[in-house]
Amino acid sequence: MAETRSILIAAFLCLVSAWSTSAQQPLRWGADPSGGAPYVYTDPANPDRYIGYEKEMVDALAAAMNRRPEFVPSDWQTLVSALQRNSFDVIVNGLEPTGDRAQQILFSKPYYIFQLQLTVRADDNRISSLADCKNHVVATLGNLPSSC
After folding, report:
1. What distance in Å separates the CA atoms of residue 29 and residue 93, rounded to the nearest whole number?
2. By the number of CB atoms within 10 A of the CB, which of 81, 110, 123, 131 ranks highest?
């Protein structure tokens, strides 16, 4: 009976040890903090800290996994290659699943839906549709599809 108790205690200690080890294992996440609010950005009140919607999401995910979140600031252009190099475990940065990217990495279900919108000055009647942009200078964000 004492031998069975010793085996059970040893098994319990192994489980507790495994649990505490996973709790200490970080969930490393990569994002480009220069994208700004509301996603992930430098806290204006504390420049050594990051805040934002995506950070809060990762904090909740890490807590559910019993892991400690660890932010790895990265350049937008290198997020995919940094993930492939194991610089972090997951990208949480609104990375759109383009065909090329989908061949390189796995994507989760979307947590945020983003749509492009054509925006012009209220007093400019020349442009009312995307087709009207032809032969005009158009500004877009980097790495987004553009047909103008």
Report:
1. 9
2. 81
Distance CA 13, CA 86 (A): 31
Asked if 34 and 77 touch (Cβ cutoff 8 Å), the reply is: no
The residue ranges of DSSP E strands in the chain, in sequence order, are: 26-31, 41-43, 46-51, 68-73, 90-91
Single-letter code of the amino acid located at 107 = F
SS3 label, residue 6: helix
- CA atoms of 106 and 52, how far apart (whole Å): 24
pLDDT at 20: 52
Band (66; pLDDT cuts 50, 70, 90): very high
Tell me, what amino acid is at 55? K
Stronger pLDDT, 41 or 141, i.e. the higher one: 41
Q: Dump pLDDT digits (tens) for 75-112.
A: 999 999 999 999 999 999 988 899 999 999 999 998 88
Phi, psi for 47 (deg, rounded to 5):
-60, -10
Q: How far apart are the first and last CA of the chain?
A: 79
Taking the complete model, does pTM exceed 0.70, yes or no? no
- What lies within 8 Å, CB to CB, of 125 at 6+ separation is none
